[in-house]
Specification:
Blueprint: E1 6-7, E2 10-11, H1 13-37, H2 40-68, H3 75-102, H4 111-140
Antiparallel strand pairs: 1-2
Helix pairs in contact: 1-2, 1-4, 2-3, 3-4
Amino acid sequence: MQSRLRVRGHPIQPMLVTFPFGLFVSATVLDLANVLSGLAFLGLVGYWTAVAGLVAAALTAVAGMIDLWDVRAGRTRRTMVTANLVNAGVAALFLLGCLIRAEAPQRGATGVLLAVELVALALGAVGVWLGARLLREFDAGRREPSGFETPDGTPFPGRTVEIIRPRA
């Protein structure tokens, strides 16, 4: 799997997925604390954390679509499409929760919304598993240099570290 969006040879989209997933987990923990404790500010912070997760999910989806552009038909493409659809499903469930909470006083969570968020996180775990599978396919085609080698695998000429003593 090759990616158009890369940092030092590594695809960006798998790195970006951690942001919305982490924000969604944080929002769910805050909503759980809101439901258990009744502290209204926890629900408000959970709501805005979920909104931030939705923004991050939108950026991640754009990166995923750009990566999907060049992938040939086959197992890798099916896995990428499935992973992107799963991630979109997670975002859709959190979006539904945010839309319902937007009209609520202090945007507090309820037990039903918390259950929807937990289902979304379980679905997100499937997306993480699919993303890890894609990364294994990506890493299978590349070889990292080990030790002091150039990227093409040949050793560096001469010494790699030189110690110069000060003149007396």
